[in-house]
Design brief:
alpha/beta; 19 helices; Rossmann fold; Glutamine Phosphoribosylpyrophosphate, subunit 1, domain 1; eight-stranded antiparallel sheet; about 600 residues
């Protein structure tokens, strides 16, 4: 949830740490701080608010002061309100420490430490770790033993980085259920909670696993698991650092909306044989025999990924003819579902670090087959499941997800085609037809982006509304939910999504001349006309209708609506991807006209790594 950066090397640690935190501020922005070893002394500087507030405190810093080791943190508050006292790093004796996660037994540990004489200056659970590590450093002969004893006392999720003022040439790291990576370059070592923070300095990355303890210095990296030294192979990251920057757009969100044709092309290319239509998912190689045994698929996710799963249900049932359920991971993990080895539990997550989804997979693995769709190589979920299908969205910096959603839909479609072919639900001709249609998607997405100006004008007209209703049917009903979520996330305007056929079962009571109704209409032999009938009920109650459709020039639709945004038609199953684009633009520009923080909306963080 929070952003972590650490550095040891020959350059100015402060500039590297602040630069890294800038790229991680999407993970949390309630407060920020750094701890630096300067002239033989640890100096901790913290500030409430965004990273810019912390930077102000270094404006007058003399050029002669340089640190070659330090740690930095940008926080999303869990334990303790946003304040300078609760900001990281936390100090205890010789230890300075930063942390991402939640210590579940912090109440008991805090009481025990106070009884032993520890004095606390914050409300956070993180400060407890600092006190524990300080205590064990005093008692143990070496730092890794102290680290080992510290984590043995902890219950919960954590990734923490610390340094010892008495041994300022190394950083101490522990990881459990929260991400942490180590980067290496000639004469330098970097630590971070996410790759973009250090990508401009190195592409050589070591990804730590749950239970890993590490001691890093310029002399090398020592990693142990269960008390035994272990080697973690370094990986070369191929992301271009520029992809983690705004690329000339005003906001990351706007850039990431425009990234979608390329991101989807990257996700589907090399996975479709253009001659036969056959799907090649080398990393997701369930055999035909295994697929034939699946009598049920359960899709689990949170937030935007859950909406992708709702569309994925249509894909698996219509294409592969496999019964499919969709569950919130936060509910699934507690309700004791009935599972067996003929059930596939498929987790969908952009970050691969969502705490509820991780726990749901943990509880499923004992009884069912498990797999994941994920965007982040080496993330926790990808190491817990049997098979992984990676999307190739690249870094998604804006808190409000856009390209992650559409690449997830593309990956789910690929997987449904693969399963359908292996199960025999799709013949060769139908597989080729579906595959060729999917290959057209990136080009049609480019055309769909042309709706931006229309969406901007509509957003200006409706930006003062305080409530929105989103309606759709079939495969596009989840798109309506996602459109409403985007509006809520970044503009703070109340919005709800409903199946259009359910409108008369309650929501119709809300409709009047002040209620904009956004309707998503896909080209369909049955659902289009039925949705038009629902819209006539809105029109008769003076509701203001904004229509998003892939049907060109429909006279009745244009007559009863205030505004129509048209995108190209591709197919009934893939239309949700194209019809998502106008809703993303609509939410973005309404937020712009209302002056909210688009990339870092209040109370939200990119990866929800705590329950």
């Amino acid at each position: 949830m929070c952003g972590i950066v650490g550095y040891i090397g020959f350059k100015d640690a402060l500039s590297i740490i602040l630069g890294g935190l800038e790229k991680l501020e999407y993970r949390g922005y309630d407060s920020a701080g750094v701890a630096l070893m300067e002239n033989g002394k640890v100096n901790v500087t913290r500030a409430v608010g965004k990273l810019s507030e912390l930077k102000k405190l270094f404006v007058a810093r003399p050029d002669s002061i340089k640190a070659n080791i330090g740690i930095g943190h940008t926080r999303w508050a869990t334990h303790g309100k946003p304040s300078e006292d609760n900001a990281h790093p936390h100090s205890a004796g010789r230890v300075s420490l930063i942390h991402n996660g939640i210590v579940e037994n912090y109440v008991e540990l805090r009481a025990k430490l106070i009884k032993e004489g520890s004095k606390f200056s914050s409300q956070t659970d993180t400060e407890i770790i600092a006190h524990l590590l300080n205590k064990y450093l005093e008692e143990c002969k070496d730092s890794i033993s102290a680290l080992r004893k510290t984590v043995s006392d902890l219950k919960g999720s954590y990734a923490f980085v610390a340094f010892d003022a008495r041994n300022p040439s190394e950083l101490l790291i522990a990881k459990n259920a929260s991400p942490i990576i180590i980067g290496q370059s000639e004469g330098e070592v970097f630590v971070a909670s996410d790759i973009p923070a250090i990508l401009s300095h190195t592409r050589q990355i070591v990804i730590l696993h749950d239970g890993d303890l590490a001691r890093v210095s310029l002399d090398g990296i020592y990693i142990e698991q269960d008390g035994k030294e272990i080697k973690r192979t370094s990986q070369i990251v191929t992301w271009d650092p520029i992809t983690a920057q705004k690329g000339g757009y005003k906001h990351f969100m706007l850039k990431e909306i425009h990234d979608q044709p390329q991101s989807i092309a990257d996700t589907i290319r090399a996975r479709i044989n253009r001659e036969s239509g056959k799907i090649d998912l080398a990393e997701f190689d369930f055999s035909a025999e295994e697929v034939a045994k699946f009598n049920r698929i359960i899709l689990i996710a949170c937030g935007t990924s859950w909406h992708a799963c709702l569309v994925g249900k249509f894909y698996f049932e219509k294409i592969a003819r496999i019964p499919c359920e969709v569950d919130y991971a936060s509910e699934f993990r507690y309700r004791e579902p009935v599972l067996d080895k003929n059930t596939l539990v498929l987790a969908v997550s952009q970050s691969g670090e969502t705490a509820d989804t991780l726990s749901a997979i943990d509880s499923s693995a004992k009884f069912a087959r498990t797999a994941a769709i994920c965007n982040v190589l080496g993330s926790s979920i990808t190491r817990k499941v049997e098979k992984v299908l990676f999307t190739h969205a690249g870094p998604e910096i804006s808190v409000a997800s856009t390209k992650a959603f559409t690449t997830q839909l593309s990956a789910l479609y690929l997987l449904a085609l693969d399963f359908g072919a292996k199960k025999g639900s799709l013949n060769n001709d139908d597989l080729l037809r579906h595959s060729k249609t999917l290959l057209r998607l990136p080009l049609l997405l480019e055309e769909a982006l042309a709706c931006e100006e229309s969406a901007r004008k509509i957003a200006k007209d409706f930006s003062s509304a305080r409530d929105f209703l989103y309606l759709a049917r079939g495969e596009c009903y989840p798109v309506a939910l996602e459109g409403a979520l985007k509006l809520k996330e970044i503009s703070y305007i109340h919005a709800e999504g409903y199946p259009a056929g359910e409108m008369k079962h309650g929501p119709i009571a809300l409709i009047d001349e002040n209620m904009p109704v956004v309707v998503v209409l896909q080209k369909s032999d049955v659902l289009f006309d039925k949705t038009i009938s629902n819209l006539r009920e809105v029109e008769s109650r003076d509701g203001k209708i904004i229509a998003v459709t892939d049907t060109k020039g429909h006279e009745e639709l244009h007559r009863i609506t205030s505004n129509v945004i048209e995108v190209p038609h591709i197919s009934e199953l893939l239309s949700p991807i194209l019809l998502t684009i106008p809703l993303q633009f609509l939410a973005y520009y309404i937020a712009i006209f209302n002056g909210t923080d688009v990339d870092q909306p209040r109370n939200l963080a990119k990866s929800v790594t705590v329950e």
